[in-house]
C-alpha cells in the first residue's frame, strides 16, 4: 500500500525507478543464464575427464623395406612405423626423445641414427603414427663386412632398433591446467635375408620387441607374421595421475560453484526486479488517477472560494445599510452575520473600519 501512495505522490520518480529495475533485471537474467551454462559445461567436462587418464596403447607395424641396392655402394632404406591409440577425450602428443638408433649384425654395429622424427598428435578417441625413415649408406668397411658375409652365406642379417617415445598431455581450460608426461623405451629388431640377384628380393622377417636387447629373440625371416605387434601401454605415475585429478577437481569444481552459485543469485535478483517493476507500474492505476483528480479538484475549489469571498461581504454590508438606515443594531448584527459567513465559506477574516461603520449609522 505504501508503494501506491508513493506512486500517487511522485509518479515521475516511480517511472524512473521501474525502468531501472527492468534494466537491472534484464542484465541479471543474461549474466545468470551464461553462468548457468558455464556450470553445466564444467559438470559435463568433469564427467568426461573421469578418470583423468586412460593408458595409451601402441603397436609396431611390420617394417617396410623401401629400397635395397648395390649400385654405387650398398644402400638400404626402410620405415619403422609405430601406431598408437588414444582412448582419452583430449589430444595427446607423442615424440621420439632420443631418436631411433639402428644396429646391424650379431655384433650390434651402430650403422644409423634417426633424430628428425616429427611430433605426432593423437586426436581425442583417435590414433596416430610415428614413422622413422632409416636411410643407410654404410661408408665404412666394418659396416659392409657383415653384409657381404650374409650375402655370400645367404644367411639372415639381424637389424636392431632402439625406440624411445615420450607421451605428453597438456590440457588448459578455465581455472585449471593439467600437464603430465611419461616416456618409455622398447628394444626391437627383425631379420633380413638378402639375395644376390636381385637385391629387391630380400625377405624381411617379423618384428619383435622386448624390454632390452638381452631379452630379445628375433624370429627367422621365413616366419609368418600377421597383424601387428603390441608394443607397450603408456602408464603414468600415480603421483602425476593424482596431481591431474586434483587439478581437475579444483578447477572444474570452482567453475561449477561459480556458475551455479552466482548464476542462481543473479536469476533470483532478476525475478525480484521484474516483480518490483511490475508492482510500480501496475499498482492500482485507477485508484492512483482518482486520487490525483481529487487533489486537483480540491485545490481548484479552494482558489475559487478565496476569489469570491470579498464580493459577498461588501454586498451584505450594502444591503444592510439601505434597508435599515436608522437602526445601528440591525447593521451591526448584519455585519456580524456576514463576518461569520465569510469565515465559514472562504476562511477569510473581514474587518470593518470604525469610520465606515460611523458613516453607515449616520
Characterization of this structure:
There is one protein chain. It is built from 7 helices and 12 strands. It is of the alpha+beta class and about 350 residues long. It has 3 domains: about 80 residues; about 180 residues, Immunoglobulin-like (Sandwich), CATH 2.60.40; about 80 residues, no CATH class. Strands 4, 5, 6, 8, 9, 10 and 11 form a 7-stranded antiparallel beta sheet that branches. A hairpin with a 4-residue loop joins strand 4 and strand 5. Helix 1 crosses helix 2, helix 2 packs antiparallel against helix 4 and helix 5 packs antiparallel against helix 6. The protein is rod-shaped, with a radius of gyration of 52 Å.
What is the structure about, briefly put?
The protein has 362 residues and is α+β, with helices and mostly antiparallel strands. It is built from seven helices and twelve strands. Keywords: Membrane, Transmembrane, Transmembrane helix.
Amino acid at each position: 500500500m505504501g508503494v501506491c501512495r508513493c506512486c500517487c505522490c511522485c509518479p515521475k520518480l516511480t517511472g524512473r525507478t521501474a525502468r531501472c529495475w527492468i534494466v537491472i533485471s534484464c542484465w541479471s537474467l543474461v549474466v545468470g543464464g551464461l553462468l548457468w551454462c558455464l556450470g553445466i559445461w564444467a559438470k559435463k567436462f568433469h564427467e568426461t575427464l573421469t578418470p583423468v587418464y586412460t593408458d595409451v596403447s601402441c603397436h609396431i607395424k611390420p617394417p617396410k623395406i623401401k629400397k635395397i641396392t648395390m649400385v654405387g655402394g650398398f644402400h638400404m632404406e626402410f620405415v619403422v612405423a609405430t601406431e598408437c591409440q588414444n582412448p582419452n577425450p583430449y589430444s595427446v602428443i607423442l615424440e621420439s626423445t632420443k631418436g631411433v638408433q639402428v644396429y646391424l649384425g650379431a655384433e650390434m654395429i651402430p650403422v644409423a641414427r634417426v633424430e628428425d622424427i616429427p611430433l605426432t598428435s593423437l586426436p581425442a578417441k583417435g590414433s596416430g603414427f610415428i614413422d622413422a625413415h632409416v636411410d643407410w649408406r654404410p661408408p665404412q668397411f666394418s659396416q659392409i663386412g657383415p653384409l657381404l658375409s650374409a650375402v655370400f652365406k645367404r644367411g639372415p642379417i639381424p637389424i636392431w632398433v632402439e625406440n624411445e617415445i615420450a607421451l605428453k598431455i597438456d590440457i588448459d581450460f578455465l581455472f585449471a591446467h593439467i600437464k603430465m608426461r611419461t616416456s618409455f623405451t622398447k628394444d626391437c629388431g627383425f631379420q633380413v635375408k638378402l639375395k644376390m640377384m636381385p637385391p629387391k628380393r630380400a625377405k624381411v622377417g617379423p618384428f619383435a620387441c622386448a624390454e632390452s636387447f638381452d631379452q630379445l629373440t628375433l624370429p627367422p625371416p621365413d616366419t609368418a607374421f600377421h597383424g601387428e605387434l603390441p608394443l607397450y601401454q603408456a602408464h603414468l605415475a600415480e603421483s602425476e595421475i593424482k596431481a591431474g585429478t586434483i587439478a581437475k577437481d579444483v578447477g572444474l569444481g570452482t567453475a561449477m560453484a561459480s556458475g551455479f552459485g552466482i548464476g542462481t543469485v543473479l536469476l533470483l535478483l532478476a525475478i525480484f526486479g521484474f516483480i518490483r517493476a511490475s508492482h510500480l507500474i501496475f499498482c492500482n492505476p485507477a485508484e492512483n488517477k482518482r486520487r490525483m483528480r481529487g487533489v486537483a479538484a480540491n485545490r481548484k475549489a479552494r482558489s475559487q472560494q478565496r476569489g469570491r469571498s470579498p464580493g459577498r461581504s461588501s454586498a451584505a454590508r450594502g444591503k444592510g445599510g439601505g434597508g435599515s438606515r436608522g437602526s445601528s443594531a440591525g447593521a451591526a448584527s448584519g455585519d456580524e452575520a456576514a463576518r461569520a459567513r465569510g469565515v465559514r465559506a472562504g476562511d477569510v477574516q473581514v474587518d470593518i473600519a470604525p469610520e465606515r461603520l460611523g458613516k453607515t449609522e449616520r
